């Protein structure tokens, strides 16, 4: 039974990553009831992506730095998305949105899951440039470019999902800026960009 639930969760994650807008609309309209393995698999995708990418950020510092940055990258990214999440729902509701909290959470979770996959896809870029030009300043630049690219892609996914869920409502772009600001602060606070 557990195996079947996990398999179902992974199947749904595949759908969420291929067509995040439709995935969220199915939930919002009540055409599909995603059980806990689906939510868990979405979260696991985000965690796997940030953890493995964080590991590549520690390559210049040795084994201890690899482990530290794997944990810190995941923690900082998770906090950056979790801290402003209540503000998204509250301020969205105050501005006229009628989305339930579960649909808002699912839109954010699909977005971070997609971002985790984008981080996984960026590992060869970071690994290659860290190995070929092992200079701290250059590695910082490569990582900033990767994070900016993943951030722009995640912003686009979130915007498309929210527009599809509520076409008549303005997409909360301010929230994405808040997530980026909090994420940047946390990454620098935890020393993630110190190579």
Number of helices: 8
Which value, in Å, is the CA radius of gyration? 17 Å
Contiguous uncertain segments of 5+ residues: none
Strand content: under 5%
Number of strands: 0
Could you report the average pLDDT, rounded to the nearest whole number? 90
Shape descriptor: globular
- Biggest β-sheet strands, sense, barrel: none
- Label the structural class: mainly alpha
Number of folding domains? Answer: 1
Query: In sequence order, what are the helices and strands, one letter per element?
Result: HHHHHHHH
- Ends apart, CA distance between termini: 45 Å
Helix content: over 70%
Characterization of this structure:
The protein is mainly alpha-helical and about 200 residues long. The protein has one domain. The chain has eight helices and no strands. The chain has helices spanning about 1-20, 20-30, 35-55, 65-80, 85-95, 100-130, 135-165, 175-190. The longest helix is centred in the middle third of the chain and has 32 residues, at about 100-130. The termini are far apart. The model has no long low-confidence stretch (mean pLDDT about 90).
């Amino acid at each position: 039974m557990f195996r079947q639930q996990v398999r179902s969760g992974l199947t749904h994650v595949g759908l969420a990553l291929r067509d995040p807008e439709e995935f969220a609309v199915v939930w919002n309209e009540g055409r599909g009831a995603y059980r806990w393995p689906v939510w868990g698999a979405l979260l696991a995708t985000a965690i796997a992506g940030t953890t493995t990418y964080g590991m590549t950020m520690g390559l210049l510092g040795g084994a201890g730095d690899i482990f530290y940055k794997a944990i810190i990258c995941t923690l900082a990214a998770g906090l950056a998305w979790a801290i402003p999440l209540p503000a998204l729902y509250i301020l969205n509701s105050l501005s006229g949105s009628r989305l339930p909290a579960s649909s808002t959470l699912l839109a954010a979770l699909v977005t971070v899951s997609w971002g985790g996959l984008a981080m996984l896809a960026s590992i060869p870029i970071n690994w290659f440039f860290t190995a070929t030009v092992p200079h701290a300043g250059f590695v910082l630049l490569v990582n900033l470019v990767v994070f900016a690219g993943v951030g722009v892609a995640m912003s686009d996914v979130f915007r498309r999902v929210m527009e599809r869920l509520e076409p008549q409502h303005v997409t909360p772009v301010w929230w994405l800026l808040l997530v980026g600001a909090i994420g940047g602060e946390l990454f620098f606070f935890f020393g993630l960009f110190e190579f």
